[in-house]
């Protein structure tokens, strides 16, 4: 067995593990026939006998490492890695009782059966079979990882009739935005019904070049006063903070002026490391440009980089990631992309239009 120092740097080896399912597993050992097992072990050594002992020191050490660095992990790192664990136990199991099956884990599922019949469901209508299938198809969540069924980012950009002088107000500031484009941007997140992470979640958007954003939120905004104050001061940034609810959709809708000028027709989006995305959908709508007589001079291209450096300044030097083909790319001017089963990453979408 590896010691604690070597295990401290093994976190990333768990990256491929999506979900652990334990069935009638004695996480705290088993008291059934414990004295007899020890006696027999003297004459007939069995490596499993030691692991079944209640409060065995070696097993307790392994359990403490798992509790601290997997169950209690707060982020993905070389030292810890949050992995959800689901424990099944038989309600008639005399070998592994509920407390031992649960051990340090939080997600426990009782099913009918004893230590042996729990693994023998009688057909696909058996509740045991249905519970196992659900655990496989829709894995449990972890308290430190947002479990997201769907994340959507949609941009619809329209040209104005030449450069317009748009009056805007944010806080006590009144100013003019000179722009030839206006966009509607929607960011939405739908949480899995298995999501157990309740930490506040942010949807953010910021523009540049002295543009302006006006935001509408689907729920009460719990952003800090200083974050709300950044929009009041500049009119360039919106922060929507809320506490996730399983199965619910939260949406940030934005009206953006001067967000997609020439030389800035792109989307740069970070998918953070503390999330698991079952589906990410990106949409682009340029129909109003085509209707106004413009052409698409650079076909929209979406690239995905699998690692999120969590710093925008680090994205440029490493270049674009792999190209992702569009699901749709109609002559009418709409495009859509979809990616699945992501744990983090960076998305870059670029295009251009010409008169």
Terminal Cα span: 68 Å
Task: Characterize the main sheet.
Answer: 7 strands, mixed
The CATH architecture designation of the largest domain is: Sandwich
**Shape descriptor:** elongated
Q: CATH topology of the largest domain, which one?
A: Immunoglobulin-like
Stretches where pLDDT is under 50 for at least 5 consecutive residues are 3-7, 32-46
In spatial order, strands of the major sheet run 7-9-5-4-11-15-14
Number of domains: 2
Number of DSSP strand runs: 16
Mean pLDDT: 88
Taken in chain order, the helices and strands follow as: HEHHHEHEHEEEEHEEEEHEHEEEE
- Rg over CA atoms: 27 Å
Strand content: 35-45%
What's the oligomerization state?
single chain
Supply the CATH class of the largest domain.
Mainly Beta
Task: Please identify the structural class as seen in this structure.
Answer: alpha+beta
Residues in helices, as a percent range: 10-25%
* Count of alpha and pi helical runs: 9
């Amino acid at each position: 067995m590896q010691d604690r120092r070597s295990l401290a740097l093994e976190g990333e080896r768990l990256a491929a593990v999506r979900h652990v399912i334990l069935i009638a597993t004695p996480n705290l050992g088993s008291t059934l026939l414990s004295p007899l097992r020890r006696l027999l072990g003297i004459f007939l050594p069995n490596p499993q006998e030691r692991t079944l002992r209640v409060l065995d020191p070696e097993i307790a050490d392994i359990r403490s490492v798992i509790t601290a660095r997997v169950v209690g992990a707060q982020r993905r790192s070389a030292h810890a890695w949050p992995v959800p664990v689901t424990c099944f136990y038989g309600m008639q199991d005399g070998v592994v009782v509920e407390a031992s099956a649960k051990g340090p884990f939080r997600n426990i599922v009782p099913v009918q059966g004893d230590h042996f019949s729990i693994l023998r469901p009688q057909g696909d209508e058996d509740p045991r079979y249905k519970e196992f299938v659900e655990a496989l198809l829709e894995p449990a969540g972890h308290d430190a990882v947002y479990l997201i069924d769907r994340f959507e980012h949609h941009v619809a950009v329209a040209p104005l009739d030449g450069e317009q002088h748009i009056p805007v107000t944010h806080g006590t500031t009144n100013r003019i935005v000179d722009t030839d484009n206006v966009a509607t941007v929607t960011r939405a997140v739908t949480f899995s019904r298995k999501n157990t992470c309740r930490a506040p979640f942010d949807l953010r958007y910021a523009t540049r070049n002295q543009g302006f954003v006006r935001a509408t939120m689907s729920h009460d905004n719990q952003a800090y006063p200083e974050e709300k104050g950044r929009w009041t001061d500049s009119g360039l940034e919106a922060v929507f903070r809320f506490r996730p609810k399983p199965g619910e959709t939260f949406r940030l809708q934005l009206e953006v002026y001067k967000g997609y000028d020439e030389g800035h027709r792109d989307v740069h989006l970070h998918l953070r490391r503390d999330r698991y995305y079952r589906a990410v959908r990106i949409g682009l709508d340029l129909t109003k440009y085509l209707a106004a007589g413009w052409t698409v001079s650079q076909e929209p291209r979406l690239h995905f980089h699998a690692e999120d450096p969590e710093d925008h300044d680090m994205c440029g030097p490493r270049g674009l990631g792999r190209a992702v083909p569009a699901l749709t790319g109609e002559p009418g001017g709409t495009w859509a992309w979809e990616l699945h089963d992501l744990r983090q990453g960076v998305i870059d979408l670029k295009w251009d239009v010409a008169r």
